[in-house]
């Protein structure tokens, strides 16, 4: 019982203390609002005295109204400054966007001009390719024919679907160009395969300049000429290549086999190479010989050097081409590619 009474007494004390504390707290808050209200409700008299001596203007207010007026005025001024700054920034941004738009339009005009030039070039390419394919006997195929029938002129870009959908002309141009290029891929591949298959043929037929590096010049052509020593008319059966010096490398003009390596009083040191298809080549007046009889040589292989052996007025290469028993003009087989 004694403990129970002590607990109840302690509980009453705690509750009483908390009640007193809360009462004091809320009382202080109430006093604060009362004092604040009294302060804000304090009366003020504002007088405006003109310097001209006219009637004085006065009006009464309180601190609350005056504070609210100051807040409103400050808010209006702040809003004005803020929106004025935003307006200036927007004007600057609009000016920048106008300049970018002008530059973009100029770039677009330039792009359109280049696109038109590209289409014109593509048109010429297509025409040249078609002509080359006809000369080579290559069938362009049904794909290219269908594409040509559908779009016979590269300048005819727009169709009804493009116009209805509002597609830009430049976009349609690029589509047309892409279609044309795709249709010509196969014919170009056919040309590449044909050239690849003919590569061996070009290596087996004399068709290059016989002096390494393409140097020198033709000092005497094939056919009727005046002999430089006898001054008599005679038939010159080859081409004379001169570099004005001895020692420049001489190359085999095609794949073949060396059948003759010898010397005589007319040609000096000379080499004869047998090629396929009954073709022979002779290289005369050589200073040195770097191949042997029976040796297999390849096109562009160095077989000797220019000299002035035999009947010669100076360093040069006498070059002949024979087909069977006939002597032909070597000029027809120089740089045949």
Helix-strand layout with pairing:
Elements: H1 2-40, E1 43-48, E2 57-62, H2 63-136, H3 141-150, H4 160-165, H5 169-204, E3 217-220, E4 223-226, E5 233-236, E6 239-242, E7 249-251, E8 256-264, E9 268-274, E10 279-289, E11 296-297, E12 302-306, E13 317-323, E14 326-328
Antiparallel strand pairs: 1-2, 3-6, 4-5, 6-13, 7-12, 8-9, 8-11, 9-10, 10-12, 10-13, 13-14
Helix pairs in contact: 2-5, 3-5
Concise description?
This protein is an alpha+beta fold.
So what's the overall shape? Answer: elongated
Q: What fraction of the residues are assigned to beta strands by DSSP?
A: 15-25%
Sequence of secondary-structure elements: HEEHHHHEEEEEEEEEEEE
Helix run count:
5
SSE class: alpha+beta
Provide mean pLDDT, rounded: 81
Distance between the termini: 131 Å
Number of strands: 14
Radius of gyration over all CA atoms, rounded = 53 Å
Estimated helix fraction: 40-55%
Q: Which consecutive residue ranges, at least 5 long each, have pLDDT under 50?
A: 145-166
Key structural traits:
two-stranded antiparallel sheet; 337 residues
Explain how this protein is built.
The chain is of the alpha+beta class and 337 residues long. It has 5 helices and 14 strands. It has helices at 2-40, 63-136, 141-150, 160-165, 169-204; strands spanning 43-48, 57-62, 217-220, 223-226, 233-236, 239-242, 249-251, 256-264, 268-274, 279-289, 296-297, 302-306, 317-323, 326-328. The strands form 3 sheets. Strands 3, 6, 7, 8, 9, 10, 11, 12, 13 and 14 form a 10-stranded antiparallel beta sheet that branches. It has a two-stranded antiparallel sheet with strand order 1-2. A hairpin with a 4-residue loop joins strand 9 and strand 10 (279-289). 16% of the residues are buried.
């Amino acid at each position: 019982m004694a403990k129970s009474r002590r607990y109840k007494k302690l509980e009453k004390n705690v509750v009483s203390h908390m009640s007193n504390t809360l009462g004091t707290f809320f009382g202080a808050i109430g006093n604060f609002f009362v004092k604040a209200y009294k302060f804000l409700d304090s009366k003020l008299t504002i007088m405006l005295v003109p310097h001209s001596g006219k009637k004085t203007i006065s009006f009464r207010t309180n601190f609350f109204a005056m504070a609210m007026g100051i807040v409103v005025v400050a808010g209006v001024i702040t809003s004005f400054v803020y929106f004025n700054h935003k307006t200036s920034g927007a004007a600057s941004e609009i000016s920048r966007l106008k300049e970018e738009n002008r530059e973009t339009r100029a770039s677009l005009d330039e792009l359109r001009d280049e696109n038109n030039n590209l289409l014109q070039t593509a048109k010429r390419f297509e025409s040249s390719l078609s002509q080359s394919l006809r000369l080579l006997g290559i069938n362009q195929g049904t794909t290219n024919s269908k594409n040509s029938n559908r779009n016979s002129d590269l300048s005819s870009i727009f169709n009804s679907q493009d116009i209805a959908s509002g597609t830009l002309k430049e976009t349609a141009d690029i589509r047309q160009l892409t279609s044309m290029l795709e249709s010509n891929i196969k014919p170009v591949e056919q040309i590449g395969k044909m050239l690849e298959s003919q590569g061996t043929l070009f290596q087996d037929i004399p068709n290059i300049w016989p002096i390494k590096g393409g140097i020198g010049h033709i000092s005497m052509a094939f056919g009727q000429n005046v002999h430089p020593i006898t001054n008599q008319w005679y038939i010159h059966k080859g081409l004379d290549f001169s570099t004005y010096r001895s020692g420049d490398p001489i190359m085999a003009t095609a794949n073949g086999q060396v059948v003759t390596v010898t010397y005589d009083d007319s040609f000096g040191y000379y080499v004869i190479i047998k090629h396929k298809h009954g073709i022979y080549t002779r290289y005369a007046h050589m200073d040195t010989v770097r191949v042997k009889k029976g040796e297999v040589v390849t096109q562009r292989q160095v077989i000797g050097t220019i000299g002035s052996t035999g009947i010669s007025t100076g360093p040069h290469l006498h070059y002949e081409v024979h087909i069977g028993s006939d002597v032909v003009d070597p000029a027809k087989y120089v740089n045949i590619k």
